């Protein structure tokens, strides 16, 4: 099954563990184990996913300059992005290109990566990251997610 609509929101916090604890208590969010393979760290962030709650929690890694650190220094904690699930991420990105948008970063996981990073939830996992310079004034991610049956 392909999901459509909002897949998850991306929330930035300074204190990663406190943020997870707060959302667990408030919403009953259950966070998957943190992926420490270095992909998120390459962007200067820690990431925790609460798949059923539709939350991606991010936090700047202290001592590493990153775009999210700069954004949070300017605007504080809170919603930093919205991940929209679409039928075809590449087609949606092509439509974005026609609107003058471009992808800052792309993900297209193979099944081994999906199993390791997404607890095997999907058979397809592809995302395009679009900068906050769009009418929504937030980072937009276009994702194609096909859940395993």
Strand order of the largest sheet: 2-3-1-4-7-6-5
Q: How is the biggest beta sheet arranged?
A: 7 strands, mixed
The rounded distance between the terminal residues' Cα atoms is: 7 Å
Looking at the structure, what is the overall shape? Answer: globular
What can you tell me about this protein's structure?
The chain is an alpha/beta fold. It has one domain (5-147): 2,3-Dihydroxybiphenyl 1,2-Dioxygenase, domain 1 (Roll). Helix content is 26%, strand content 36%. The chain has a 7-stranded mixed beta sheet with strand order 2-3-1-4-7-6-5. A hairpin with a 4-residue loop joins strand 2 (45-50) and strand 3. The relative contact order is 0.20.
């Amino acid at each position: 099954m392909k999901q459509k609509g909002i897949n998850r929101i991306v929330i930035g916090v300074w204190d990663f563990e406190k943020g997870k604890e707060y959302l667990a208590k408030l919403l009953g969010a259950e966070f998957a184990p943190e992926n420490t393979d270095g992909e998120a760290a390459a962007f200067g962030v820690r990431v925790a996913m609460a798949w059923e709650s539709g939350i991606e929690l991010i936090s700047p890694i202290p001592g590493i300059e990153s775009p999210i650190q700069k954004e949070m220094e300017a605007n504080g904690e809170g919603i930093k992005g919205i991940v929209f699930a679409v039928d075809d991420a590449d087609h949606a990105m092509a439509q974005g290109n026609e609107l003058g948008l471009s992808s800052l970063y792309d993900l297209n996981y193979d099944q081994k990566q999906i199993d390791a990073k997404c607890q095997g939830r999907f058979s397809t996992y592809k995302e395009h990251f679009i900068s906050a310079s769009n009418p929504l004034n937030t980072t937009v991610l276009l994702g194609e997610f096909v859940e395993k049956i």
